[in-house]
From TrEMBL, chain A:
<dbReference type="Pfam" id="PF01144">
    <property type="entry name" value="CoA_trans"/>
</dbReference>
<dbReference type="InterPro" id="IPR037171">
    <property type="entry name" value="NagB/RpiA_transferase-like"/>
</dbReference>
<protein>
    <submittedName>
        <fullName>CoA-transferase subunit beta</fullName>
    </submittedName>
</protein>
<dbReference type="InterPro" id="IPR004165">
    <property type="entry name" value="CoA_trans_fam_I"/>
</dbReference>
UniProtKB/TrEMBL annotation, chain B:
<dbReference type="GO" id="GO:0016740">
    <property type="term" value="F:transferase activity"/>
</dbReference>
<dbReference type="Pfam" id="PF01144">
    <property type="entry name" value="CoA_trans"/>
</dbReference>
<keyword id="KW-0808">Transferase</keyword>
<dbReference type="InterPro" id="IPR037171">
    <property type="entry name" value="NagB/RpiA_transferase-like"/>
</dbReference>
<dbReference type="InterPro" id="IPR004165">
    <property type="entry name" value="CoA_trans_fam_I"/>
</dbReference>
<protein>
    <submittedName>
        <fullName>CoA transferase subunit A</fullName>
    </submittedName>
</protein>
Length: 267, 281
């Protein structure tokens, strides 16, 4: 379908990677949109876990924060946060973890902590959150990030979450339980690790993107897979479902909130 | 047991104390944070997984010397500009960071609640965090020889929570998204809880989250005390406030003017909320 944005294409491409009944640890933003799109299309049994402790949540609208009431109200159940990280994630009960980052390197290591030196950064970013242990324990990690030479870098300013470390099996030798970043969905297509070197290589392009565009957007010499697939454009059903989700979300977020102010004299 | 908010903050928060205002997106004790700012407490070691707007405000108003945290952004919006200014430019004063992941901080709160010296997890592997934080170390399992990450227990001098209700004995019931609120409460030396309502008796609920009266130091009746975060069953999160905060907090002067008008010049949380109904926020 023509006329869709690269953001929409990225979201649809990520959603298609999710198999029904998988257990997904979801972050806010594009990953949340992708997971809910998958749930509303081909994967109705997808189990979504948000780190706030909401498990099996089926939000009607996308949350602004990781702890919006919508996530709790539509959850199968809600558990304390330490349980999510210890009994579910660390215990190996999460199939897919979604991560974003300000910087990624060729081995899928991620930085969401600082730009510049740690002690005196030029830009202090929010930090780790759940990412280090999601990166460590999820069976597979999918990264969603827009590409530029500032974000897809030769060398991270700080390693917040481990991908394949220095490559060539370093992650596996270190004993990481999870499989690491199996796919990086970006705004020209998709990267995936080389089976021997672990280096991210171009494996698929959106139908309207080119190898030249991909190489120009990446800050290291981008390796190309032997065969580069074409990612089919969003179908009308995928795009309609995604746009309806965003429309519901905009409408819900525009509703004014009443201040919790009881009339004078009442308790 | 039952205090006004001003008295509870005055009596239990001393300059230099370690203080955890917990609640994960939900039930963030904003009213208590504002009262700490009004009483101009200084040198606090602030502890919170997600500093959120409440610590952005306290840091920008000069209450903090140190921050223990695991994710310091404005959820779904972007940066906490006052936290960034403190780290990037030491304004209004330098801020020491004790930085963790969520899993690490959860383990530290659990250890604190159990009065163990440290928490342990399979975490931080391959990251630069242990090199930057001496509080992230490793320990060898005495049974298997496996190396595990270790973090010291967090035992705040004071934990402050917001909850839906307390009964006449001071038992506190919380429902909805909890974060690490229960663990932070049980880890604290002093526990202050602000509540939406006081009831004669809590409804029976066998597996509910209840903080029993003998671990609660002070209960404060403070309706709306979590606004602009939310209290399930009472009011929803004001997402637009979080979006507007990005503009309010971006520049020092705008931030200080807003805090002066809405917090320093209001006498209590009710006056703060009333002021918002009259202003554009």
């Amino acid at each position: 379908m023509s006329g869709c944005s690269r953001n929409e294409w990225m979201t649809v491409a990520a959603a298609r990677l999710l198999r029904d009944k998988s257990v997904c640890f979801v972050g806010i933003g594009l990953p949340s949109a992708a997971c809910n799109l998958a749930r509303l299309t081909h994967a109705p049994g997808l189990v979504l876990i948000y780190e706030s402790g909401t498990i099996g949540t089926r939000p009607q609208v996308l949350p602004l924060s990781i702890g919006d009431g919508e996530l709790a109200e539509t959850a199968a159940y809600v558990v304390p946060l330490p349980e999510v990280f210890s009994y579910y994630l660390q215990a190996g009960r999460v199939d897919i973890g979604f991560l974003g980052a300000a910087q990624i390197d060729r081995y899928g290591n991620l930085n969401s902590t600082v730009i510049g030196p740690y002690d005196l950064p030029t830009t202090r970013l929010p930090g780790a959150g759940g990412a280090p242990e999601i990166a460590l324990h999820a069976r597979q990690v999918f990264v969603m990030a827009k590409a530029s030479k500032r974000s897809f870098v030769e060398r991270l300013d700080f390693c917040t979450s481990a991908g394949y470390l220095d490559g060539y099996g370093a992650r596996a030798r270190g004993g990481a339980p999870g499989g690491g970043p199996r796919a990086v969905i970006t705004d020209f297509g998709m990267l995936a690790p080389h089976p021997q070197t672990d280096e991210l290589q171009l494996v698929a392009l959106f139908a309207d993107a080119s190898v030249e565009e991909a190489c120009a957007a990446v800050g290291w010499p981008l390796a190309l897979a032997d065969a580069i697939d074409t990612i089919a454009p969003p179908t009308p059903h995928e795009l309609d479902t995604l746009r309806a989700l965003f429309a519901r979300t905009r409408e819900a977020h525009a509703c004014p909130v009443h201040l919790p102010l009881a009339p004078e004299g009442l308790p | 047991m039952f205090f006004s908010l001003a008295d509870a903050i005055h009596d239990y928060i001393t300059d230099g104390a370690s203080v955890a205002l917990e609640g994960f997106t939900h039930l963030i004790p904003f009213a208590a944070g504002h009262e700490i700012i009004r009483q101009r407490k200084r040198g606090l070691h602030l502890i919170r997984m997600t500093p959120d707007l409440v610590y952005d405000q306290m840091i920008g108003m000069g209450c903090a010397r140190k921050l223990t945290f695991s994710w310091g952004g404005n959820p779904g919006v972007g940066s906490l500009h006052r936290l960034r200014d403190a780290v990037e430019h030491q304004w209004p004063n330098p801020l020491e960071l004790d930085e963790h992941s969520h899993a690490g901080m959860a383990a530290a709160f659990c250890a604190g609640a159990a009065r163990l010296p440290f928490g342990t997890l399979r975490g931080y592997a391959g990251t630069d965090l242990p090199a930057r934080n001496p509080n992230i170390r490793s320990v060898t399992c005495p049974f298997t020889g496996e190396s595990l990450a270790a973090v010291p227990a967090i035992n705040p001098d004071v934990t402050i929570l917001h909850a839906q209700r307390a009964d006449r004995e001071g038992n506190v019931a919380i429902e909805g998204i909890l974060g690490a609120a229960r663990e932070a409460a049980l880890a604290a030396h002093t526990l202050i809880v602000t509540v939406e309502e006081l009831v004669e008796e809590l409804p029976p609920a066998m597996n509910a989250i209840v903080l029993p009266h003998w671990i609660v130091t002070a209960v404060v009746h403070c309706p709306g005390g979590a606004y602009p975060s939310y209290a399930r069953g009472h009011y929803t999160r004001d997402n637009s406030f979080y979006q507007r905060w990005d503009t309010v907090a971006r520049e020092r002067d705008d931030f200080l003017a807003w805090m002066e008008q809405h917090v320093l010049r209001t006498s209590d949380h009710r006056a703060f909320l009333t002021g918002l109904t009259r202003a554009d926020g």
